[in-house]
Amino acid sequence: MFGRRHKVKRGLLFCMKKFYFALDTVLNYKEQVLENLQAEHAQIIAERVECERGIEALEQEQQECMAELEEKKSFGISITDMQTYDRFLTSLRKKIERERERLAEILQREERKREQVVEARKETASITKLKDKKRAQYDKEVQKADEQFIDEFVSNKRAVARA
Known about the structure:
Layout: E1 5-9, E2 12-16, H1 24-75, H2 79-162
Antiparallel strand pairs: 1-2
Helix pairs in contact: 1-2
């Protein structure tokens, strides 16, 4: 009853212990660590995607500005307007360069976090495999005990029937 195997043997009630895995608390902790690492990794990936989109937007703005400048050059443009475009394009190039440096740093953080996630997965998987192995061993013992109990029960019934 209540999650345990009970056996009646020679008029006494015996109880088979419920499966217990000594490393369950460690496994739970490792699973929590893995979940946290995966969440952190997902945040870094989101940051990387945002940075890449920002770079694309800046590059698009740069292309549009250069096209606009070329168009104005073909119709004639003043020196001051040309200098304004040049300063703006220089500013965009610097922003793009800073964002690319930021992206490189994010990629490094992403790789380090990915390695941590892989390591945590390995640790969790090894403990889970050990738990599965112990559970299979426990189930075999329970089955063996059940079979022994049935054999004894049948033998006792036969002995009572003969007597």
